[in-house]
Amino acid sequence: MPRLKIGDLDKIVEQGKKNMSLREGAGRVKITVHMGTCGIAAGARKIMAEIMKCVEESGANDIIITTSGCAGLCSREPMATVEVAGQAPVKYIELDAKKAREIFDEHVIEGAIVEKYALAVGSEQTL
Amino acid sequence: MTVMTSNRSVQTDKRVSSLPDGYRMHLMLCAGTGCVSSGAFEIKDVLERELAKHNLTDEVAVVMTGCNGFCAQGPVMVVQPGEIFYQFLSEKNIARLVEEHMLKGRPVEELMYTPPEETAVVPKVSDIGFFKKQGLIALRNRGLIDPEVIDEYIARDGYKALAKVLTEMTPDDVVQEMIASGLRGRGGGGFPTGVKWKTCREAPTEPRYVVCNADEGDPGAYMDRSIIESDPHSVLEGMTIAAYAVGSSQGYIYIRHEYPLALKRLEKAIADAREYGLLGKNIFDKGMDFDITIHRGAGAFVCGESTALMASMEGRVGEPRAKYIHTVEHGLWDRPTTLNNVETFVNVPPIILRGAEWFTSIGTGDVTDNPWGGSKGTKVFSLVGKIYNTGLVEVPMGITLREIIFDIGGGVPEGKKFKSVQTGGPSGGVIPEEFLDLSVDFDQLTKVGSMMGSGGMIVMDDDDCMVDIARYFIDFLIGESCGKCLPCREGLAQIGSILNDICEGKAEEGAVELLEELSGTVKECSLCALGGSAPNPVLSTIKYFREEYDAHVKDHRCPAGVCKALITYSIDPVKCTGCMVCIKSCPQDAITGEKKKPHTIQADLCIKCGICRDICRFDAIVVK
After folding, report:
1. How many CB atoms lie within 10 A of CB B522?
2. Global pTM value
3. N or C: which end of chain B has fewer CB within 10 A?
4. DSSP class of residue A4?
């Protein structure tokens, strides 16, 4: 490791932001890949891998990727939910790696919902 | 230099190769001494194995953090994002946890925390009462960073305060800022840190030394250990800033031999800081030289006293000397020395970064014109004894004892009644229930006959005999007295023998008065703070629990049922169901009886070990 200069501190802070924000639970976008048995069987692991790759390539440090159980619509798996902070969550269905990347580029980065893959906006009511 | 689980390297910039990048989930597994002794490293192995089994190694990182603070529930782990808190992990429940939560995203409720007397679990860290009322300055990085990765410390604004003092502040500015902050020594003395630094800076001789006191010897207290284990670089940064302020180029950390994990992390932190040029010659190319050497103490309680500590470092017997010669002028090797406690040093970087004004907004009193005028900032306490949530807590000064013990600590377990709390370590005082609403700061605690000390807090319930408690602490202090001055050496021994007599019912009338007189002499005439404060447990228990002493002396009775010579065990024939359990478990075969008929205890055989009372499910064992 080389000696640090004062300016290097900020570089490390910048590069550390991603995992620190993960630990502080702060993010601009939350992507949930549904990982019930049905989702996994339908290929959710591939979707997860692709999305993680997308995040890494984009260099974004404000995206939280998480998993959840079956969304209840097993026939339309693999599914993912994209939730931009302050907006209603959007559920995407019947995904593959290519679609996932498209959704990442257009919705997560650009902010435009990819309607052709979307099932619905919003989520069920919790009683 | 990383303890990440994955071998994969996703880094493009070599410089920050130690940051866990490219994972979607971080498992912040506590690796403080408490959790390590309950199996944290074994849990880590199983976690890694299970993650690999599900091909999650590239997605989920296991991060070993410093002490999380909630030691009673260990081993503990926080899953991020989501701050889900898991407790009592064991090798057996990891497989299910990984499959359910890490793979399928379904948090496992059975491993979550349930508050006492409630049934619903509390998944999130920030919703758990134990964490909710805490405010972190000294422990700001606990559980959030891997203490063995310097970049994680830097990523949380580490070493920025050092950069700030080297570029924007003169040493005098730093001293002034510290005085204005009102920070007082966290080791127990409560001396204003800035004032200490100023005197040291103005001392005419050189070289000057900066010493960190990590010789934490109070039974049941582990604040410093935990700080070092969870955030060693903050200690180094605080010391380096102190060195800049007082004009020192050599620092020492005096750490107990009993803290192997803290020592290991300190050694690694120092090596990493040297490599980054944050210790050594010409720090940040600003012309400042400073390095730190670790000195291991041999575990004598008295060596936590500043002059004894320095004597020990010089290779002499660890005995205190008279304090009218100040160590800030004539300290280590007779040179000006700034000695501060671990917790004091870790408060320094945030004060420098965020300013004295921010720091004074927390706490009690007013320190504008008088650094002794209040208690600012926070204090770390180790909360132990008869308390539901044993652990390490950091709270703002001025919080009440009630809030600490009941809101954070969860109160006294098993439906027992709170009796008193001992603060300030073995030579602190016992505070009874009537002062529960006392606001905790340096001056208030002293006022009621106890002290802040380094932050031990031992909670006692109705089963604790106050005379026995006083005897316990005096016994400890007799063993730890260095023997240099007579009042402490002989006075404590006499106090101890009187307390023994009281506990055995052999004391004569007037014993309590004699104790008070003797305690006064020891307090007045001892050379150092050990003797000066040693009678506190005796004096405070007499002051608040005089009736218990009287019961021992006059009635030969121990109301709490602790002092063996004064109690007898018997069986309540109404409550006893004749289940035979106590008969089988009595090591002396002192209990006789038949099935389904009330049993009896033979007093001449009974050694009063209490096993029958612990084991009886019908509350039929009577202790009088």
Report:
1. 28
2. 0.85
3. C
4. P
Residue B7, pLDDT above cutoff 80:
no
Q: What is the ipTM of this complex?
A: 0.76
* Nearest chain B Cα distance for residue A1, angstroms: 6
Residues of A in Cβ contact (< 8 Å) with B23: 19, 22
Nearest to B421 by CA among B387, B467, B471: B387
Q: For residue B313, tell me if it sits in a domain.
A: yes
Kindly identify which residue of chain B lies nearest to residue A32, measuring between CA atoms: B105
More confident residue, B87 or B426: B87
Contact A69 B105 (CB under 8 A): yes
Q: Which domain holds residue B497?
A: 466-554
Q: Is the same domain home to B505 and B413?
A: no
| CATH number where B206 lies | 3.40.50.11540
Closest CA to B374 of B538, B184, B209: B184
If you average pLDDT over every residue of chain A, what do you get?
Answer: 84
C-alpha span between B243 and B291 (Å, rounded): 9
In a domain, B95, yes or no: yes
Yes or no, beta carbons of B104 and A68 under 8 Å apart: yes
User: For chain A, which domains are there?
Assistant: 27-121 (3.40.30.10)
B366 and B395 inside one domain: no
The total domain count for chain B is 5
Rounded to an integer, the average pLDDT of B467-484 is 94
CA-based nearest distance B109→chain A, Å: 14
Number of Cβ within 10 Å of residue B246's Cβ equals: 25
pLDDT tens-digit readout, B44-81: 999 999 999 998 988 899 999 988 888 888 899 999 88
Asked if the C-beta of B185 comes within 8 angstroms of chain A's C-beta atoms, the answer is: no
Nearest residue in B to A25, CA atom: B81
Q: Which of A15, A50, A52 is the best residue to mutate to test the B interface, defined by the most B CB atoms within 10 Å of its own CB?
A: A15
